[in-house]
Every structure is written in C-alpha cells, then in structure tokens.
Specification:
This protein is α/β, with parallel strands linked by helices and 349 residues long. The protein has helices spanning 3-8, 28-40, 53-56, 77-84, 91-100, 112-121, 137-144, 159-172, 197-205, 219-226, 253-270, 322-325; strands spanning 15-19, 45-50, 104-109, 127-129, 150-153, 177-182, 208-213, 231-235, 290-293, 308-311, 329-330, 345-346. It has twelve helices and twelve strands. The strands form three sheets. Strands 3-2-1-8-7-6-5-4 form an eight-stranded parallel sheet. Helix 9 links the parallel strand 6 and strand 7.
C-alpha cells in the first residue's frame, strides 16, 4: 500500500516507521539485519538519513561545534556526522531489502544534492524533513518540486515558522504534508512533550498529524495514537553498544514489537464513529428502556398508564415519545410485553 494512503486512512492503524539513523555502526550487514528485525517487529516503513558531513556542517573545531551535553557530549559535529552517516551507496541495496520484505524505505535528505541522489537511486514514495531542517527553505523547495507527500517534524519551530515552511512546500509542488510533533532532545523527557499541542497543529493547519519520538519506552506513542496520530516514528537499534550511535534512546526489537501490538490495540479501541448512532449501538443497548404493553390491550382501547409502561428491554418506542403515546387509540390487539411501535396506534407523532 502507498504510505500516504495508510496515513490518510483512519480505519488503519498509524504508519509505524523504524528510523535506522546511524545504528548500523558503519556495517552494511548490520544495516540489513536492522531492516529485517524492524519488519519482524511490526514496522511499516524504514527511514534513513541522507547526508554527508560536509553537507550538514563544516569542519569547525571551536566550542560552537563541540557538543557539551547529552548522548554525544565531547564530540565535534563533523566527527559525529562522519560516524553516523549512512553511506550513499548503501541506499539501493537497503531499499531492495525493504521491498523484498514488503515495506517501503525512504529518507530524510539534508541538502539539495541528497534529494537529487534519492530521486535517482531509490525514488522514494515520501520524504521526511527533520526538525532542524524545517527552516532550510532551499531544501524545502527542492523536496516540494518532487511532487511527493512529506512528513515534517516541527520540534524547534513556532506556528509562524511552520506556516512559512508549509507554504514553501505546497507552492513548490508538494501534494500533502503530515506534521509530526517532536521534542528535539535525545532522549526526550516525558514532561516536555505537551502532547495536547498535537491537536493544535491539526486545528491550525488542517494536516494529518503524527509523532517523531525520541523518548524512552512507548508511553508517548500510545498516548499520541489515542490523540489521533497517523504516523509514529521511532529510532530502532539491535543493541545499545557504542557503535549504535542512537542506541541510548532507540527501541530494541522486542520493545518495538510490544509498541506495535499496543498501538494496534489502542487504534482498534478508538474505532471510527464520530457520532453515536442508536441503530448501531452495542448489544447491551437492548437493556435500555422503551415503551412496552403492561396489560392486555384490545383494538380501540386507549393507551394509558394502566396498560403501557416504560420498561426493559429497549426494543419498543423510545420513552421520549411517552407523553405523545398516552391517550392514543390502539389499532390492534396487543399482549403483555409487546414492544409498542407507531403502527400499533392511531395518533400522529
């Protein structure tokens, strides 16, 4: 199935994306194993990141380029990206492996040359714009011109910036955007999520919404699903060894599998009805009350409190018509327990 078709079809569970990032540790065979494990764990799609150190930063060695906090503290940006990048000549074999397993592979490009490469190598169905790239307007124009749906993380942007980014994508040719709520910390803390703001994104921009999640565990994705998220993206790793760059906040296979099962269950519980319909309520509705005959009635008798009653089961007329029915003349004989219907008496109601 087309990825955006799944996103836009609310009868289906959210699209579950396994982000490989640099968790392959520079080993192609491990990257292939990651894809196999992700699909086995329930992923609908695999995501890469497409960049080179020189296209995402410069070789700066002053403090401005040194990471001082978090998972990668002590590393310079250029060195981190050099270690974490997915070699470009891996994209085609990884895409082929994903397709063999019945899922799609796509990527987050980080500059215009990456878009050109992705278009010519794997021709992805969809693009992802990372949080820190949402103000990279030349990149947005390039992606939009591909005419494909986009997932856009909004972790470090305000409403005005999001609107400008959306305008850029749409005016360049992008047909649809799904906005992904995101806390751009690694790992992200639960108290920083403010998940209710997902609904503000949907109300403000009218797009589908989703979650790009860097928190530990699956509490946040489950809550996001309940709020209507149509995409859940999680970093995926085989282990938490040093070579798995994002291992500290990535899901291991069993954890992803557990999340998948919970999300499918929660989505099933949500259902698709937006308005209660009395004709399609649960079987338990039969034990609601309705207007029933409480003593034998002959044709021509008046219906009074002595021969009709509001009682269970609920297969007769709705009690909201009680005062309209009182005083009507029976048009047929009725026994005790008969569920009253409009054809049983003569009165316009």
């Amino acid at each position: 199935m087309d990825l955006f078709d799944q996103i836009s079809d609310n009868s289906l569970p959210p699209l579950l994306i396994a982000e490989l990032s640099g968790n392959h540790g520079g080993d192609l065979s491990k990257a292939i194993n990651l894809i196999e494990a992700a699909v086995e764990s329930g992923a609908d799609a695999i995501k890469l990141q497409t960049y080179k150190p020189e296209t995402i930063t410069v070789r700066g060695t002053c403090d401005r380029f040194l990471l001082k906090d978090g998972l990668w503290a002590g590393q310079y940006l250029h060195d981190l990206y050099n270690d974490a990048m997915t070699p470009w000549d891996w994209h085609e074999p990884l895409s082929q492996k994903a397709q063999e397993l019945g899922v799609e592979l796509f990527s987050s490009p980080f500059d215009e040359t990456a878009v050109d490469f992705l278009e010519s190598s794997i021709d992805p169905q969809i693009y992802k714009v990372a949080s820190f790239e949402l103000n990279h307007f030349p990149l947005l124009q390039k992606i939009g011109a591909c005419g494909k749906p986009v997932l856009a993380s909004v972790g470090v942007s305000n409403f005005a910036e999001i609107k400008f980014s959306l305008d850029t994508l749409f005016s360049s040719g992008c047909p649809a955007v799904t906005l992904l709520h995101c806390v751009s910390e690694y790992p992200a803390k639960l108290e920083d999520f403010n998940l209710a703001s997902m609904l503000s994104l949907k109300n403000e921009f009218g797009t589908e919404i989703g979650l790009s999640d860097h928190s530990l565990g699956h509490s946040v994705p489950i809550a996001a699903t309940a709020l209507g998220a149509r995409v859940i993206e999680k970093h995926f790793a085989l282990d938490r060894e040093e070579s798995s760059i994002d291992g500290g906040f990535s899901m291991l296979p069993e954890e992803f599998k557990e999340m998948t099962a919970e999300i499918v269950s929660i989505h099933s519980a949500l259902g698709n009805k937006r308005v209660y319909d009395r004709n399609t309520e649960s079987k338990g509705a039969t034990f609601k009350r309705s207007i029933l005959v409480s003593s034998p009635v002959k044709s021509g008798d008046l219906l009074t409190r002595d021969n009709i009653r509001v009682a269970r089961p609920g297969d007769g007329l709705c009690p909201s018509l009680w005062f309209d029915v009182l005083g009507a003349k029976a048009s047929t004989d009725m026994d005790i327990g008969h569920p009253l219907s409009k054809k049983d008496f003569n009165k316009n109601i």
